[in-house]
Each structure stands twice: as structure tokens, then as C-alpha cells.
Design a protein that fits this description.
Length: 411
């Protein structure tokens, strides 16, 4: 048994070959068949466009911020279209986007994998001691070798590294010297969030901010479009608004709670909205929260602050307001509807209802119902010889009582 264990440890994992073009062929050997089914079912117009997208995953951890403050605290996650680190939320986000066949991922983080991270998804005990971006890139390349992954192992909040980060997302797109399509932020502190916010405002890049609470039972995502929606500095949290040093919030020997369930849910909301944005389907949420205690998902929209402290945000606001209103295109003539699935693989047929006679009164009532709707309950059948209640204003109380007695009389 010991000999077998050593053999398995020394065995080298062999991944699949790269695939040049996504195929919708339904075979067990096609890793994209289930994804391409979204296109066949009319959810996405052209799913393979995902391979032309670049997302930035940025992560940054400050040693003294173990989550010891009563504020949003999450591990860093960022992908080509947004800064997302490779911690609790970011690593799962990167994993999901890789399995979805994203074209390119930029991973930003300078933390190392620890055994204390094993309560989270993605990382494994044998990766302890490795840098998170190194461990993540190795795993993600094995999962899907078609995804281009670049790693950036440095702290984006320092002056020099911020310029490196700015240049990386400005030139990190699929095409050479083009910006990333989206930045995903899942960092665990406000300093890093503000750095991402400044960079995206300066470059006018859309990004998602995300976070999980210190008690691990709530989280949120926020879609920020510079100039159109509130940036992170438009309505800053107390720690930023009051210029509080995060170091002073540290409580000795206290660490934030962390649940893989909450982080997985937040990562799922993040990637779902990322795909909707990149592939143009559904409605992208401006803000989507999650309260695990009562399974509550609040949604809202946040408008930009015209007195924001970020000068790039103010510039983006002016640019957005200067844009001409969108021209409403003329409604085209309705096209003849064609069957969505002409081949009818599952042999589904429409069968007419039996010709059941309908009461005259019921038929009369239903004739006034718009096609496609039905009554929740049947109207009572009124007998022809039943006493009628008059609506004349001059009817006396005695007459009304007599009419009611006649209606209640047993046959």
C-alpha cells in the first residue's frame, strides 16, 4: 500500500490537448458541448465569443487585515474584465470562468496558499507555501489549456506596482495593446478596492466589486460603469470617508469567519453577471446582495455622486452626460415565426384538449377573457327562474329583505 501511494504521488497528471474551435457536437469527449447548448437553446447568440474576452483577476492581502474589522472582508479575486484575487471568492471565480472557456485571465495576488485556506474551495493542501497565482495558474491550465493565463505576483496598492497594474489592464486584452474587457474585484480590504476604483475610472473600464462579510453570512456584488453608475468612492464606507487607518481596526487574536458556501454563492453571482455582460444576455445587476440568514437577495441601482472625490470619476460623469441620447430604432415588421427546433429531437407534440361541452354561462364569461389567460375559478351558474335582485334606488328595505329570503329559501 505504501509503494502504491508513492507511485500515485509521483504520477504526473496529463491534461487534454488544446482545442482550436469550440464545437457543439454532443459527444463525451467534447468539453464545450454543454456550454454550446446555450446557443442552440437561444439563450446566447454566439457562445464562442467568450474566447475573445479577457478578464483581470486581482487579489491583494494585507498581513494585518485578518478580517478583524466589522467590515466587508473577502479574499482577493480578479479576472480579465475586473480585478479579482485568487482567494476565497476569486479562486472560485477564476475556476468558473476557466471552465466556461474565457479567452484570457489576468491573475493579481501576492499572497501564499496556507493550510488555513483549506476551508475554502479550489486550493489543496499540497499547494501550501506556493504563491496563490502560481498555484492557481497551474490548476487552471490543467482544467482548460485553451485559456491564456498571465500571473502578476505583486501588491497593486504601492506606487510603483499601481503603475504596473494600470499598464497590465490597459494592454491585457486579447488583441495586442488593448484593455481587458472587465475587471473583477474580490479583494479583502478597502485600500485595494480604492486602487482598483482609481485605475478603472482613469481607464474608463467597467468592473465588478464584490465582498463577503466578516461573519461569513452575507455578501454582495456591484457593477460599476464609470460615469454612469456610482464608483466605489462616490459613496465610500465609513473606513474611507473618515480616513480611518485599517491598521487601527485590527483586534489581536481575532480572525474573520469564512464559509465556502457563502463565498461560492457570491462567486456564482459574480460569474453569472460577468457572462451576461460579456455575452449580452439577460439583465446585469447593478447591485445584488445576499443575506444567508433569511436567503434574501436585495437589488438596487446607485447613481454617481456629482461631488465625488475621485477626479477621474467626475471626468467620466461629464463624458457620460455629453453623450447624445440613444436613437430609438424603428420597430421592424414582425417576422414569420419559425419553429425553434425543427428537428424535434425529443418527439414533443402538441395535443388538442378533448371537446368537452361547456355550460352556456361559463362559455359566455370565458368569451370575454383575453386569449392565453384562464379564470382561477368558475363563475356560479345562475338559474333562469332564480329571483333577481333589483338595483333600483327606490326599492324599500322590506322589498330587499323579501328578495333575500327568497334567495335563501331551500328548494
Amino acid at each position: 500500500m505504501e509503494h502504491e501511494g508513492k507511485q500515485s504521488e509521483s504520477a504526473v497528471k496529463v491534461g487534454r490537448e488544446r482545442i482550436e474551435k469550440m464545437s457543439a457536437e454532443v459527444v463525451d469527449s467534447n468539453p464545450y458541448s454543454r456550454l454550446m447548448a446555450l446557443q442552440r437553446m437561444g439563450i446566447v447568440k454566439e457562445y464562442e465569443q467568450v474566447r475573445q474576452k479577457s478578464v483581470a483577476v486581482v487579489g491583494k492581502r494585507i498581513p494585518f487585515t485578518c478580517g478583524a474589522f466589522g467590515l466587508n472582508c473577502i479574499s482577493m479575486n480578479d479576472m480579465v474584465f475586473r480585478f479579482v484575487g485568487v482567494g476565497g471568492v476569486g479562486s472560485v471565480t477564476a475556476d468558473m470562468l476557466t471552465r466556461c472557456g474565457i479567452g484570457k485571465l489576468l491573475l493579481f495576488d501576492y499572497d501564499k496558499v496556507e493550510l488555513a485556506n483549506m476551508n475554502r474551495l479550489f486550493f489543496t493542501p499540497d499547494q501550501a507555501g506556493l504563491s496563490k497565482v502560481e498555484a492557481a495558474a497551474k490548476t487552471l491550465n490543467f482544467i482548460n489549456p485553451d485559456v491564456s493565463i498571465t500571473t502578476h505576483n505583486y501588491n497593486i496598492t504601492t506606487v510603483d506596482n499601481f503603475d504596473r497594474f494600470l499598464d497590465a489592464i490597459r494592454t491585457g486584452g486579447i488583441a495586442q495593446d488593448t484593455p481587458v474587457d472587465l475587471v473583477l474585484s474580490c479583494v479583502d480590504n478597502f485600500e485595494a478596492r480604492m486602487a482598483i476604483n482609481t485605475a478603472c475610472n482613469e481607464l474608463s473600464l467597467n468592473w465588478f466589486e464584490s465582498g463577503v462579510s466578516e461573519n461569513a453570512v452575507s455578501g454582495h456584488i456591484q457593477f460599476i460603469r464609470p460615469g454612469e453608475t456610482a464608483c466605489f468612492a462616490c459613496a465610500p464606507p465609513l473606513v474611507v470617508a473618515e480616513n480611518i487607518d485599517e491598521k487601527t481596526l485590527k483586534r489581536e487574536g481575532v480572525c474573520a469567519a469564512s464559509l465556502p458556501t457563502t463565498m461560492g454563492i457570491v462567486a456564482g453571482m459574480l460569474v453569472q453577471n460577468t457572462l451576461k455582460y460579456l455575452l449580452h444576455f439577460g439583465t446585469v445587476s447593478d447591485y445584488l446582495g445576499y443575506n444567508a440568514m433569511i436567503d434574501f437577495f436585495p437589488r438596487m441601482s446607485l447613481k454617481p455622486n456629482p461631488t465625488c472625490d475621485d477626479r477621474f470619476c467626475l471626468e467620466r460623469q461629464k463624458e457620460y452626460l455629453a453623450k447624445p441620447p440613444s436613437v430609438v430604432e424603428a420597430v421592424a415588421e414582425p417576422e414569420t415565426e419559425e419553429p425553434l427546433h425543427e428537428d424535434n429531437l425529443y418527439g414533443i407534440e402538441l395535443v388538442e384538449d378533448d371537446d368537452t361541452p361547456v355550460a352556456a354561462s361559463e362559455s359566455k364569461v370565458q368569451s370575454n377573457i383575453v386569449e392565453g389567460l384562464k379564470l382561477a375559478y368558475d363563475a356560479p351558474v345562475v338559474e333562469e327562474n332564480a329571483p333577481q335582485v333589483t338595483t333600483d334606488d327606490d326599492v324599500s328595505l322590506d322589498q330587499l329583505m323579501a328578495q333575500m329570503s327568497g334567495m335563501c329559501k331551500k328548494e
